[in-house]
Amino acid sequence: MRNFVSRPVGYLIVGSFAMIIGLSTGVGIGYFFGGAEQAVEVVEVSTPAEDDKVVSLNQPVAPLPIPIPQKLPAIEPVPDEDVWTAIPEMTKTRSVSADAPAPWPELVEKIEADRLESETAAQEKLKNELAQKLAMQAVREKDELAWAKIAEDWARQMPEDRQEEPGTRIDRESAVWEDNAVTVPDPAGKPMISIVIDDLGLNRRNTVRTIRLPGPLTLAFLTYAEDLERQTSSAHAAGHELMVHFPMEPRNPDTNPGPNALREGLSETEIRRRLTWGLSRFKGYVGINNHMGSAFTGYSKGMAVVMDEVRKRDVLFLDSLTTQASAGRKTAAQAGVPFVARDVFLDNEIDARHIGQRLAEVEKIARQQGHAIAIGHPHGATIEALANWLPHLEKAGFVLVPVSMIIKHRRGA
């Protein structure tokens, strides 16, 4: 053992252990008793074998600095127009050399076909617009000729001593409704049927078609239609009886009966003003009937005012009977106004089958009570149904009469 320690290698090993123990003890004592003084970092450095010893560095080793990149200047965005090259607009007149190669012949053919199709479509549109204008002009000219023909027939058929405008007789001091009534032969006991067509005057074409139906019909013109003097004169000349179709308030508040309609909330003065306006729109009528009015005709106070104005003009009242609660009959009787009510509506459903069923119902009622009043409207289906039905009415044993004739019959005249 002594020999081992005496050897140089033994010296080295023992010295190393002693150094480690001493360093450990020194670091611990410095940690607890060193205070706030700067600690000295100890670095172990290896030396060549012949100088095998430990070197202590008394100076602290500073940490390596970390480089911080400098802030680069902001890059301004470049506008699109500075980046992209503008594409020149192609013009329709741009020419292409005949010698230029055509790498896509199918594309060239399609472009040409599309151009031809576009030009053809534009020409067709212009042609259709021109045809439509010509057709509308022809319709207007046809309507004008129709009105002129009816007026000419009226003037030719009227006796010379009665060459007066229809309606002028309304100012006479007699039973106006009787003076303005269309005269028909005595029914001789046959059941009578009266056909009333409402809502006339707005649709000029269907008004003309209605006037051309065989009569006598009773034609009711709306107060707010235009050109009423000419339309009603033509109807009178064709042998039909005239009535004023007066707008009155319906039960449904969303339904508009038209301008100057009679309403429950109006004062008596305003009701009379509106009646005066409506009843002066044309002349030659036998009476008045209500347009809509499911609310107003049930208003007794307002209907009493209406009957007073009707009585003053010495005309009759036809109740369209848009409500079973109508006060028309009662107020007419109190005012002494000639009164009659509708029996059948022809076209609540506008189709030929339904209208045919209603006409059969009219015939049934006429056979039962001796007369019947049907109300229809100038729908195409209604006009066509009447055009087919009216010529056969006499052969079926009925007499077509105006409304005034039924009132005369009920009065025993």
By CATH reckoning, the class of the domain at 171-411 would read Alpha Beta
How many strands? 9
Strand content: 5-15%
- Number of helices, counting only DSSP H or I runs of 4 residues or more: 13
Cα-to-Cα separation, first versus last residue: 170 Å
In the CATH hierarchy, the third-tier topology of the domain at 171-411 is known as TIM Barrel
* Uncertain parts: 32-52, 80-87, 91-98, 157-172
* Topology order in helix (H) and strand (E) letters: HHHHHEHEHEHEHEHEEHEHEH
Largest sheet: 9 strands, parallel
Task: State the fourth-level CATH superfamily of the domain at 171-411.
Answer: Glycoside hydrolase/deacetylase
Tell me the overall shape: elongated
What's the rounded overall pLDDT mean?
79
Compute the CA-based radius of gyration.
Answer: 54 Å
Characteristics:
alpha/beta, nine-stranded parallel β-sheet, 9 strands, 44% helix, 11% strand, elongated
Short synopsis of the structure:
This protein is 44% helix and 11% strand.
Structure description:
The structure is a single chain. The longest helix has 53 residues, at 105-157. This protein has helices at residues 2-6, 8-33, 80-83, 105-157, 176-179, 204-211, 228-237, 268-278, 300-313, 328-335, 352-369, 380-389, 403-411, and strands at residues 192-200, 218-222, 241-248, 287-292, 316-319, 339-341, 344-345, 371-376, 399-400. Mean pLDDT is 79; it is low at 32-52, 80-87, 91-98 and 157-172. Helix 9 links the parallel strand 4 (287-292) and strand 5. It has a domain at 171-411: TIM Barrel, CATH 3.20.20. Helix 9 packs across helix 10 (328-335) and helix 11 (352-369) packs across helix 12 (380-389). It has 413 residues and is α/β, with parallel strands linked by helices. Strands 1, 2, 3, 4, 5, 6, 7, 8 and 9 form a 9-stranded parallel β-sheet that branches. It contains 13 helices and 9 strands.
